[in-house]
Amino acid sequence: MGKYLAIIGGLVAIAGGIVLVAFVWWIPFVWLVKACIPPVLFFGGLIALIAGISSVKDAARTKQLEAEAKAEEDKKA
User: Fold this and answer.
1) Which residue has the higher pLDDT, 10 or 73?
2) Nearest residue to 51 via CA among 29, 59, 38, 23
3) Where are the domains of the chain?
4) Are 12 and 20 in contact (CB under 8 A)?
5) b vs e for 12-39, b when ≥16 Cβ sit within 10 Å of the residue's Cβ?
6) What is the pLDDT of residues 56-66, one digit of tens each?
């Protein structure tokens, strides 16, 4: 019974939120969305930059380890 009550409560909360945003707080909601776009772009770009740098470092490290492993195999053979 608790699962169904949670689902119904969630649907009521979603509907209430949509009604309040659409009819009561539309202008402040638009201001909030506009205010969130620049920080989201900044931090999203920062995360992408860090991920790209990490990927380049990992690729370089992998090449180095492969070269070391090949050199080690050549010494043994």
Assistant:
1) 10
2) 59
3) 2-76
4) no
5) eeeeeeeeeeeeeeeeeeeeeeeeeeee
6) 999 999 999 99
